[in-house]
Protein 1
Amino acid sequence: MFGKKSTHDQVTEGLKAVYPRLWRYCLTLTGNADRANDLAQSTAIRAMEKSHLFKADTHVDRWLFRMAQRIWLNEVRSDAVRRGGGLVPIEDVELPDKKPGPESNLLTREVLKKVMDLPEAQRATIMLVYVEGYSYAEAAEILEIPIGTVMSRLHAGRAKLSMTMGKLDHKTG
Amino acid sequence: MSNAQKFSDEQLVAYLDGESDHAPIEEINEALKTDAALHARLDQITFDQDALTASLKSLLEQAPAAPEIPAELIQPQRRSFVPALAYAAAAALLFLFVGFGGGYYLAPREKEPGWRAIVASYQSLYVNSTLSHINQDDAALDAELVRVSQAIGRKFELSETAGVETLDYKRAQLLGFRGKPLVQLAYLSKIGEPVALCIIKSAKTGTTNVTETNLWGMSAAHWRKDGYAYLLIGGTDQQMIRSAAQKFSETL
């Protein structure tokens, strides 16, 4: 009406754009493709229900990641543990063979395995900072933890990945 | 003396990540010129970040598309350009001057989730063991159906409610949705997933075809027939839900 998108439209559009990234994050949280589908879908539904609470013209991607994180911690995770199946090892995740060749899928699976071997808190933080590219402050906002905790989780996660993955990427400030 | 312990682990991580607000970059650069122990500490937390991002990038192509969200789950948002309180005040003034009608229609109203959304949310709490222990004989199942039939005003026969091979019929319950009776028939699928067929009286007459959907991550199908609305929901086997919904829509 005033040439400005409603928060509902912003969330709807943001959701479509962010969904693949959100699903990938859900996959690394849950370690299971089916559960990642459920978590990403629950996040989408919750986001639409709460779209009136989204602060217009802020970052819808961070808002969605934070929502997925909350649903995982408060609802899906406990259900996964309660159902007794626990968290399925990433080797069992069916990665559909789409465009990338089998070698690429194999590499993805190997790297995923190394990421999944990290404790959950370190894994989520590593994903947000090094895969999703969020700053420390942004990751802290999504995970709802202090920046210092983000940094100590990254240190622990880095130390483990340093042992399991190569060391090529030695950046300096 | 080594500078290695002069910097915290967190500062070294921030240094590697270029987060200059959280690391004394220049000091560390200076120390690195002479301090082998500091090099070693950095080396211990260095990994192939490019390999991580590049290989996980392919997952984006394997992600499913964003789901279509059922309209009944979407609440219209408050209009952000006029605070809700201003709306309420305007509505109250209009009430005083133009009477109840104008105030009522101009006040912002939030649509509440529909019955299917509420049922889906309730069904998501069901697990196999909610139902697996239930083994009633036909007399008990019949008695339940008589009770719920009376409440909702239409007759259910056991041969109909238990007539789908892929679903093991467990029980009938009477629930309520905004003062209206809602019947829940509970089943376990062949692989043990809880499924529910819910029926509520509809203000709309006429018959609609079975429409498939997905609510709260569960397969679902809904239709309307002879003044009642039906929702079959549970598990993730869309094909099973489709064929069971088709059968129920014909026999019930």
Protein 2
Amino acid sequence: MSNSLFGSIDFNSRALELQAERGRVLASNIANADTPNYKARDFNFQQALGAATAATAAGRAGAIEPARTSAAHLGGSSAAVSTVSLQYRAPLQSSVDGNSVDLDVERANFAENSVRYEATLRFLNGQIKQMMTAINGQ
Amino acid sequence: MSLFKIFDVSGSAISAQSQRLNVVASNLANADSVAGPDGQPYKARQVVFQTQMFGADPASAGVAVTKVVEDNSAPRKVHDPQNPAADAEGFVTLPNVNPVEEMVNMISASRGYQTNVDVMNTAKSLLQKVLQLGA
């Protein structure tokens, strides 16, 4: 029951979590645009989403399960612990202070990530509305 | 909500950049100060940025000013025998502030500040959209 009703909502919420995480990584790069020896980082979104959905299917490795004191209790788990592997971005132009942040690249990525985040929110909204329509039966 | 962390990250960058702007302002203000409180000419100052991690989370890295260093390069000497601060040979020792460098520093700091404000605004509007989810 749970899968057919909430499967795609679950998928989109994973995507939303990862997009928020990517936003954080990119914000860190922008914040450290003037820090000597800082190396810009990012992660492969496709791989991370694949790993996150696989982890969901396999019972969420690393998630914390609440204790069940009765057989009638429903199972549940917290969000899986973040599994993204951060990688260093290959610099387009090297700088003398060892910083590899290209502000234009980071800003473009941040804007793109924000649009994707908004798109995911829209999908989620649509699914919730669909469900409300089904519940109301009108 | 992990998007809230963006405010910590960009906020730390904003305060670091404004500190840098502060130092630039003092350097420019004192570009012609022949004597400070200790009787010596003013020395240009620079901030040192360092990455600051928030807890064990590797994804969010803020920035902090760890120290303010003084520029120890040689002071400027100008020949001006009429000046009361002139030495026996008629030279006045002026601070080693380079106004051109300071202006560049100022532009860089204000751009950095603006960019981080933009990032925070984007994060804020996204979070507001999350609040309206399902409405």
